[in-house]
Amino acid sequence: MHHRYDVIVVGAGGAGLMAALYAAKAGVSVACISKLYPTRSHTGAAQGGIGAALGNIQEDHWEWHMFDTVKGGDYLTDQDAAEVFAKDIIDVVYELEHMGLPFSRTPEGKIAQRKFGGHTRDFGKAAVERSCYAQDRTGHMILQTLYQQNVKAGTLFFNEFHVTDLLIEDGRCRGVVAYELSTGELHTFHAKAVILAAGGYGRAFKITSNALTLTGDLMSIYYRKGLPLEDMEFYQFHPTGLAKLGILVTEGIRGEGGILRNSNGERFMERYAPTIKDLAPRDIVSRSIYTEIREGRGIGRDKDAVHIDLTHLPREVIEGKLAEITDLARTYLGQDPVKDLVAIQPTAHYAMGGIPTDLNGLCLSDGNGGSIEGLYAAGEQACVSLHGANRLGTNSLGDLVVFGRRAGRYAAEYAKQVEYAELPDDPEKESREEFERLRGSSGKDNAASIRKELQASMMNNVGIFRNGTDMAKQVEIIKELKTRYQNVSVSDPSRKYNTELIEAMELGFLLDCSEVMTASALNRTESRGAHDREDYHARDDQNWLKHTMGYKDLNNSGNVIIGYKDVALKGFTRSFEPKPRVY
């Protein structure tokens, strides 16, 4: 079945909905393809807030937000992206408010703001209230607001469709191929411009805050075409996930005054970040927690978690501003934050890397400025390199709406200027052959067992702390798992709602993302941001102040070709930092 729209958006989270809305406002025909019903997208899991220098509680400026973003990204952040972001997010937050997003309010009626890890005033001198929030359901409110606006603007939605191929020929994207879950049929979507906004790949790890749908589909498809993925070695482990489950415990819980404690009841962050303690950036807090666990001060049966303590806070704060996480702790752990310490542990949370783009969302084909005409990306799937080596809390929701808006605008502008390019003779051929291989395989391997081995080994070998020996071992493990994947069989012969078939396909995507992530991490012989190597403790700006570009070796499926891209610098360097350092 064939469809034709000026702009196709893949993904209906915050970035996809913002991109679709702005493309539709520009007067072009827009369709949004989503694995899920839009308001169930993973943006809804973002609890704590969206950072913007509104200055509603105390003095704040976009320049301070830009600095915190660059410093938080350990100076691998592209500073032109950080500047655009810190300026634009102020306007976008007010725009969301005018769309009807129900932000929490100050007594004067302004948008309420609270502290968040890594956000400071006056270039690092003290913490600042910058996070705009809707209780602890900010992401959920963004989804609801943007979905309503898209319905109003006439965006057409194709829900429960899984994109299986990008139609790229002669350096131009002509559309996508998608599998309809309810019928088992393949559909070709012909477009002038395509925007990719389908999220990350956190399901590559055993303990993760990511939804089951986040399997890096479009990153893998892009990579399989010999196109690069940028900075895949930088993966953020959020310091606070519910123990054993990985369900996100918002950073707002520490912004409201939550204290991390070890098995001795000690507030251990005073040892690692004496100035701002529990409000240090996520990479620092995650490593601090893991160090406490390694040194025998963990809690629980397996001694692999620590506590977050809210018991000193008023009940109305816990049940008002932190209502969702309070309910989750009570439901899943049987622990009441009002009176109990809550068990948490670091959880795989966010990919700083992804499909490389320019400031307008245009997808890059190399590290020298080459691009794919008509193809854009935004959100966690993309890498405009706003986050560098480590993303600050609240900057993810800001990234979605700022760069989603830019991608939508520029994709629509492009679509108005061009005609539809011709499609290949048989656009569904590759997708059809892959499904037939999975359906027709007589192999004995099971996708679920391979996925379980992948997730456990990635957690152990490419997790919070890394070293060359373990990552070299992981390279070989992934090669073996990819070989076994060729023998995966699907026992369900049905075409309608064949979730076993979909999960087998998604495993292939996860293996690709893990392959390029591991190779990129092994190649970077320094510690920076979320990438912490036990065999290379020092940060090395002389050799590694550059972005990694990982390409699939199309002549050898087990190899990754590494290239590089320059970091965009614009005034902030380590010499700019106040002394002594605040962390």
Provide structural commentary.
It is a single chain. With 583 residues, this protein is of the alpha/beta class. Among the domains are: 238-346, Alpha-Beta Complex (Flavocytochrome C3, Chain A, domain 1), CATH 3.90.700; 429-566, Methane Monooxygenase Hydroxylase, Chain G, domain 1 (Up-down Bundle). It is 35% helix and 21% strand. The chain is built from 16 helices and 22 strands. The chain has helices spanning 14-25, 62-72, 79-99, 138-153, 217-224, 252-255, 269-272, 282-294, 315-320, 323-333, 395-417, 429-440, 447-461, 468-485, 499-523, 541-544; strands spanning 2-10, 30-34, 50-51, 113-121, 126-132, 156-159, 161-169, 172-180, 186-196, 229-230, 235-242, 259-261, 306-309, 342-351, 355-356, 362-364, 371-377, 382-383, 465-466, 532-533, 546-552, 560-566. Strands 1, 2, 6, 7, 8, 9, 16 and 17 form an eight-stranded mixed β-sheet that branches.
Furnish the topology, listing elements before pairings.
Elements (H helix, E strand, L loop, with lengths): L1 E9 L3 H12 L4 E5 L15 E2 L10 H11 L6 H21 L13 E9 L4 E7 L5 H16 L2 E4 L1 E9 L2 E9 L5 E11 L20 H8 L4 E2 L4 E8 L9 H4 L3 E3 L7 H4 L9 H13 L11 E4 L5 H6 L2 H11 L8 E10 L3 E2 L5 E3 L6 E7 L4 E2 L11 H23 L11 H12 L6 H15 L3 E2 L1 H18 L13 H25 L8 E2 L7 H4 L1 E7 L7 E7 L17
Parallel strand pairs: 1-2, 1-9, 2-6, 9-17, 15-18, 19-20
Antiparallel strand pairs: 3-5, 4-5, 7-8, 8-9, 10-21, 11-14, 12-13, 13-14, 16-17, 21-22
Helix pairs in contact: 1-4, 1-11, 2-3, 3-11, 5-15, 13-14, 13-15, 14-15
